[in-house]
Amino acid sequence: CTFTENEATSGAGLCNNYAGSPTISDCVFSKNAASSSGGGMQNASSSPTVANCEFLENSVVGTNENGRGGGMSNSVSDATANGRTYNCTFIGNTAYLGGGVYSYYASSLTMFNCTFSANVATQGGGILNETSSPTITNCIFWGDTATSENEIFNSSDSTPAITYSCVNGGDTSNGNITLDPDFVDPGNGDYSLELGSPCIDAGTSTGAPLADILGVSRPQGAKVDMGAYEHAGK
User: How far apart are CA 91 and CA 185, in angstroms?
Assistant: First the structure.
């Protein structure tokens, strides 16, 4: 399915409330605009399955606490697929808090092999965690922009577990790297990996999806690649 150019207060593309937990796979959320939260998708007290989806140029126009989650906003929710959100891209989304994803109040998102880039926010260009401690594995956060924390912003009571991920300005513990992922052609929307990218064979197979966003089986090489795209040449 494609959800494009819709408008709403919350969840302009799709709004899941109060135990509404659909399975959402191979969908595109593009250029949707919310006035408060969840430009692409809003999850409130619900736990949908989200896999192989693209969140592109969605926006939230509100400011401060009323401008949350350009791509996806979660409140008391786990956007999961058998315990995870996987193989999703969050590209070019905008919001005051959490350009790509906003995770709030016990929304312990578990995310595998997602790619964040070109998202824009005042706080947390890629993702903002407030009173929330997600698990992030095999993901790429690169080229997002914010006044405070370009890639990942954590409130004082949020302690995410980030492993085997590429985070610009992050750390190199727990299998993480801080090197340019070498996207093929980000200017034209191609966020797959160039041959020789440091993200190739740099992830972990533990808990990772068996195929990438395009259906390419994982791993192609010695290890699973970071991000939504598995390099077919490795």
Answer: 13
Q: Is the peptide bond between 219 and the residue preceding it cis, with omega within 30 degrees of 0? A: yes
Residue 189, both tokens: 């929307």
Q: Give the type of residue at 215.
A: G
Strand pairing class (85-86; 110-112): parallel
Question: How far does the chain reach from its first CA to its final CA, in angstroms?
Answer: 31
pLDDT in tens, the chain (234 residues): 999 999 999 999 999 887 777 889 999 999 999 999 999 999 888 878 899 999 999 999 987 777 899 999 988 655 553 346 899 999 999 999 999 999 887 666 789 999 999 999 999 999 999 888 889 999 999 999 998 788 999 887 888 899 999 999 999 999 999 999 999 999 999 999 999 999 999 999 999 999 999 999 999 999 999 999 999 875
- Residue 66 CB coordination number (10 Å): 16
Q: Which helix (H) or strand (E) holds 184?
A: strand 183-185
What whole-number distance in Å separates Cα of residue 58 and Cα of residue 140?
19
Q: How many CB atoms lie within 10 A of CB 147?
A: 11
Please report the pLDDT score of residue 177 as a whole number.
Answer: 98
Q: Return the structure tokens found at 202.
A: 């740099």
Find the helix or strand (DSSP H, E) in which 4 lies. strand 2-4
d(C-alpha 82, C-alpha 80), whole Å: 6
Q: What are the backbone dihedrals phi and psi of residue 129, each rounded to the nearest 5 degrees, phi first?
A: -115, 120
